[in-house]
Amino acid sequence: VQLQASGGGLVQAGGSQRLTCAAPLSIFRFITIAWHRQAPGKQRELVASITSTGRTNYRDSVEGRFIISRDNVKNMVYLQMNSLRSEDTAVYYCNAPEQGYWGQGTQVTVSS
Q: Can you tell me the distance from the alpha carbon of 101 to that of 63, in angstroms, rounded to the nearest whole number?
Protein backbone atom coordinates (compact mmCIF):
# COMPACT_ATOMS: atom_id res chain seq x y z
CA VAL A 1 0.00 0.00 0.00
CA GLN A 2 1.38 3.40 -0.92
CA LEU A 3 0.31 6.84 0.04
CA GLN A 4 0.53 9.49 -2.68
CA ALA A 5 2.05 12.85 -1.87
CA SER A 6 1.72 15.76 -4.27
CA GLY A 7 1.77 19.54 -4.42
CA GLY A 8 5.45 20.26 -4.18
CA GLY A 9 7.29 22.77 -6.32
CA LEU A 10 9.40 25.90 -6.32
CA VAL A 11 8.24 28.77 -4.13
CA GLN A 12 9.81 32.01 -2.99
CA ALA A 13 10.71 32.58 0.62
CA GLY A 14 7.72 33.96 2.49
CA GLY A 15 5.31 32.24 0.16
CA SER A 16 2.87 29.39 0.68
CA GLN A 17 2.41 25.88 -0.65
CA ARG A 18 -0.13 23.17 0.05
CA LEU A 19 0.78 19.51 -0.02
CA THR A 20 -1.75 16.74 -0.42
CA CYS A 21 -1.51 13.14 0.72
CA ALA A 22 -3.95 10.69 -0.84
CA ALA A 23 -4.40 7.60 1.30
CA PRO A 24 -6.58 4.98 -0.42
CA LEU A 25 -7.12 3.00 2.76
CA SER A 26 -10.39 1.59 4.04
CA ILE A 27 -9.18 2.31 7.57
CA PHE A 28 -8.17 5.90 6.79
CA ARG A 29 -10.59 7.56 9.17
CA PHE A 30 -9.23 5.51 12.08
CA ILE A 31 -5.52 6.15 11.70
CA THR A 32 -2.88 8.81 12.29
CA ILE A 33 -1.23 10.38 9.25
CA ALA A 34 2.06 12.24 9.44
CA TRP A 35 4.23 14.40 7.21
CA HIS A 36 8.00 14.01 7.29
CA ARG A 37 10.74 15.73 5.34
CA GLN A 38 14.30 15.05 4.36
CA ALA A 39 16.72 17.72 3.27
CA PRO A 40 19.91 16.84 1.34
CA GLY A 41 22.49 15.39 3.67
CA LYS A 42 20.15 15.35 6.64
CA GLN A 43 18.05 12.76 8.40
CA ARG A 44 14.35 12.46 7.77
CA GLU A 45 12.39 14.37 10.39
CA LEU A 46 8.80 14.49 11.52
CA VAL A 47 7.06 17.71 10.51
CA ALA A 48 3.46 17.27 11.66
CA SER A 49 0.90 14.62 12.43
CA ILE A 50 -2.84 14.36 12.83
CA THR A 51 -4.71 11.64 14.68
CA SER A 52 -8.04 10.07 13.74
CA THR A 53 -9.74 12.49 16.14
CA GLY A 54 -8.02 15.52 14.63
CA ARG A 55 -5.42 16.11 17.30
CA THR A 56 -2.38 17.72 15.71
CA ASN A 57 1.29 17.87 16.55
CA TYR A 58 4.04 19.98 14.98
CA ARG A 59 7.78 20.22 15.23
CA ASP A 60 8.86 23.46 16.83
CA SER A 61 10.35 25.00 13.70
CA VAL A 62 7.04 24.88 11.79
CA GLU A 63 4.64 25.60 14.65
CA GLY A 64 2.49 28.60 13.72
CA ARG A 65 3.47 28.42 10.04
CA PHE A 66 2.24 24.98 8.93
CA ILE A 67 -1.25 23.56 9.32
CA ILE A 68 -2.10 19.88 8.94
CA SER A 69 -5.68 18.86 8.28
CA ARG A 70 -7.61 15.89 7.03
CA ASP A 71 -10.73 15.08 5.00
CA ASN A 72 -12.11 11.70 6.01
CA VAL A 73 -14.58 11.68 3.09
CA LYS A 74 -11.91 12.14 0.43
CA ASN A 75 -9.23 10.17 2.33
CA MET A 76 -6.87 13.12 2.07
CA VAL A 77 -4.46 14.83 4.43
CA TYR A 78 -3.19 18.32 3.70
CA LEU A 79 -0.18 20.28 4.82
CA GLN A 80 -0.63 24.01 4.37
CA MET A 81 2.79 25.64 4.55
CA ASN A 82 2.98 29.39 5.05
CA SER A 83 5.83 31.84 5.54
CA LEU A 84 8.18 29.37 3.92
CA ARG A 85 11.90 29.61 4.58
CA SER A 86 14.90 28.28 2.69
CA GLU A 87 15.42 25.75 5.48
CA ASP A 88 12.03 24.21 4.64
CA THR A 89 13.51 22.95 1.37
CA ALA A 90 13.25 19.16 1.40
CA VAL A 91 11.48 16.16 0.01
CA TYR A 92 8.23 15.81 1.91
CA TYR A 93 6.71 12.40 2.62
CA CYS A 94 3.43 11.38 4.14
CA ASN A 95 3.06 8.20 6.10
CA ALA A 96 0.77 6.17 8.30
CA PRO A 97 3.15 5.62 11.21
CA GLU A 98 1.26 2.85 12.98
CA GLN A 99 0.86 0.82 9.78
CA GLY A 100 4.27 1.61 8.31
CA TYR A 101 2.91 2.91 5.00
CA TRP A 102 4.82 5.61 3.10
CA GLY A 103 4.27 7.83 0.08
CA GLN A 104 6.84 8.49 -2.63
CA GLY A 105 7.69 12.06 -1.59
CA THR A 106 7.27 15.45 -3.22
CA GLN A 107 10.02 18.03 -3.56
CA VAL A 108 9.56 21.47 -2.03
CA THR A 109 12.19 24.06 -2.91
CA VAL A 110 12.13 27.46 -1.27
CA SER A 111 14.21 30.11 -3.00
CA SER A 112 15.59 33.04 -1.03
A: 25
Q: What's the one-letter identity of residue 110?
A: V
Q: How far from the centroid of its chain's Cα atoms is residue 86's Cα?
A: 17
| Cα–Cα distance list, 85 to 25, 33, 59, 68, 101 (Å) | 33, 24, 15, 18, 28
Contact 33, 21 (CB under 8 A): yes
* CA within 13 Å, CB half, 29: 5
Rounded distance between C-alpha atoms, residue 25 and residue 90, angstroms? 26
How many angstroms separate the CA atoms of 35 and 39, rounded?
A: 14
Q: What is the pLDDT along the chain (112 residues), one digit of tens a residue?
A: 679 999 999 999 999 999 999 998 889 999 999 999 999 999 999 999 999 999 999 999 999 999 999 999 999 999 999 999 999 999 999 999 999 999 899 999 999 8
Task: State the virtual CA torsion across 106, 2, 68, 46 in degrees, nearest 10.
Answer: -70
